[in-house]
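Input for the complex:
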Amino acid sequence: MMEWETVIGLEIHAQLATKSKIFSGSATAYGAPPNAQANLVDLGYPGVLPVLNREAVRMAVKFGLAIEAEVARRSVFARKNYFYPDLPKGYQISQYELPVVAKGHLDIVLEDGTHKRIGITRAHLEEDAGKSLHEGLPGLTGIDLNRAGTPLLEIVSEPDLRSAKEAVAYMKKVHTLVRYLEICDGNMQEGSFRCDANVSVRRRGAEKFGTRAEIKNLNSFRFVEKAINHEVARQIELLESGGQVVQETRLYDPDRGETRSMRSKEEANDYRYFPDPDLLPLELDEAFIAGVRGELPELPDQKAARFASQYGLSAYDAGVLTASRELGDFYEAVVREVPAEAKLAANWVMGDLAARLNAENLEITGSRLSPIRLAGLLMRLADGTISGKIAKDLFELMWTTGRDADALIGEKGLRQITDTGAIERAIEEVMAKNPGQLADYRAGKDRLLGFFVGQVMKATGGKANPAQLNELLKKKLAG
Amino acid sequence: MSLHRRTIAELARGLRAKEYSSVELTQSLLARIAAAQPALNAFITVTGEEALAAAVAADRRLATGDAGPLTGLPIAHKDIFCTEGVLTTCGSRMLGNFRAPYDATVVAKLRAAGTVMLGKTNMDEFAMGSSNETSFFGAVKNPWNPRRVPGGSSGGSAAAVAARLVPGASATDTGGSIRQPAALCGVTGLKPTYGRVSRYGMIAFASSLDQAGTLTASAEDAALLLTAMSGFDPLDSTSVDLPVPDYTAVLERPLTGLRVGLLKEFFDKGLQRDVEEPLRAALAVYGKLGARLTEVSLPNLPLSVPTYYVVAPAECSSNLARFDGVRFGHRCEDPRDLTDLYERSRGEGFGAEVKRRIMTGTYVLSAGYYDAYYLKAQRVRQLIAGDFTRAFTQVDVLVGPTTPTPAFELGAKTADPVTMYLNDIYTIGANLAGLPAMSIPCGFADGLPVGLQLIGPHFAEERLLNAAHLYQRETDWHRRMPGAYA
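Predicted:
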């Protein structure tokens, strides 16, 4: 394995969050009955013509500016010709020689914490195809053209990725970015964000790339990782046994965890690209581009850097908390309430809250605890009213009841015991009840300290201040 | 005088003066269409009932004074324009069953102007042809001589106007499809500047060349129809957002000092001698009208035909991919699988000339040939356009023949596509450069009409119509009618 190097490039398809299609006025909403959102233009009727949706252009430019790319003042729509029933016109309108966005980049963080810059060759606008349906139609093929004409931004990376993990990190980074920019809903189940992976291997140190295979239509981060790992292993095995990789398109089968050949280079279509004579070249003026630049939000990397410096967070924590705009907003709303506890807030948002959301399959926007409620809990934890242990229980209680921290602390008597006398009394009771363990401890069984801590905590309903308890217990046990 | 002999301008005056109703006019022309159909085959569909209903509505508007210049005026549309609820075949078996679910912008605009559609005219299949012989619905005959072709692809519209079955008809011109049949049938044909008239709803042949225009008896009539048809259309990104003038307003402007350029390359040895004579006579008329004649050379113009026969088929090969038997149009019986569905539906639905151009176009766009053919043709196209731009710094209008010969015999050129293609040798240049151009009748050769072609700079329709109209004031060639239909 060590002598092989993996080379990956991704082509990500992000469905742009426009209300209508890229070349027609049909709606783009997901889940409508088949062909309910396909008008004559989408159906490719004789005589109809495409009209470009300016909103899609605005979104593509927004992406281009966010990845510090060149935004083309003049780009050209081209026809990609091939026959398929879900492609009504017999060609897809795309961009070929002159894309709207070229030469950008994104930085990813590797496992060892170092940053790596991934080149983005281009991003171009194109229309999606429809869908062929087979279920419930024995011996027949149904065509649903609701998706036909949906605007896509195809984001093509340089072959800069060197492992499946890097590929996933990059894809996540793009995913985060397009949602920050509000140009794509990022919904992978509905196919709004998917990718094709170009994978090859070469001997370490070799200059030339190996022959690549293209794995089509990967619609989850997990599948991207698995498919690439499988494909890399397949190619290495093939090469080591004296075989050759053939340039081909492969499909990933998630049930079997493997890729299989779809068509070879020889069977590949000659798409006969040429400029679409129905659409004028897309000309963008400086004022338009400046206008879009003015709409750019704080970008993920900028936000992460600010979080690190403003809140004293590690780069890793800042990265996690800025993974989505909503998560960053939630975190900052908590910190606004407890400005002195930014680090504590980070731990809770990334810890207990994240775990709870994850367990219930919720996004941060679906949290049952508002930032203000969570801040209320953190305030009581910080001022010593409750112990860390109690805080965890209180969090669960707040999550299920929806009530605020102070009310529950008062009602359930969760205030921690810091009165030395009270804690000492509890210790003495426990010692009196457990003479055997006390003797063993005193005979040198230090490990029994934990037993005594547990017993005292139990006796105080978990409310004893842990630091005080430890100190007092040791003193008492020593006799 | 019988109604059919009148021009659009004259009929419009008569309608407003209540000399006759739109219903009477419509009925009389429908009768002429029915009588001429067996001999000429100019129509694919006649919409008599709808026409009478529209005429009734027009008469109501005329009665209340709520009428425009074209209200109640019967016209025909080339069957390339989508017409809501009416068969729209494009001259092809592929669309033999296709009722368009919407109106083309041209149709909608002329409908809104109050015109009454009498039917859809015959044409070469998908507008690919110069003789109307490629129509799935049979060839159209030339009203001047039924053994001769009417020209193409708008042969049905040209023959219908020549035989005075309708006073005017819409048409389209990709490489000469308005001007060549106008010349061969002795009528006035106008191809506007590319982008002047919306292409929405006009079934595409070659999108960068296609342009809708008119076939009428006179330049004045062309001006009336163009005023109603043209304008920016938000549904067509290639239509141009320029105000539409009243094209009739400047028809009478004197031509004194007009710089007229004779296209040197068009007066070549390919031009038939007896066609040249009426042309020279026409130029003398322009001299008398005060125009200054000079000779102009466009050295790259002879490359027009090969350039066109790369660009147009390339675009057509892609434009016609949507006819796949899946959503509309012809579908073969019992397809075995998807490939069979495609192959047989398209194999059965398209005729030989369409297939030839799809194959040529597919070839010139293929990997390895794109640069040598398509890209090179686009460069030559730029050179030709540049020739015109330079010429228009020296002259205001270019003139020359529309066709090298008058109407040829049916079947004479069907065996040799290249000979057929050369019929458009004088018309293609204006399409490649996107320029407005007209053909007007200027005499006869061996009893068959001869056309004079006028080409102007972009959006100089007013100048062309003005020059054509004043010529028609001096001459009566445009008033001549074939004996059988006078």
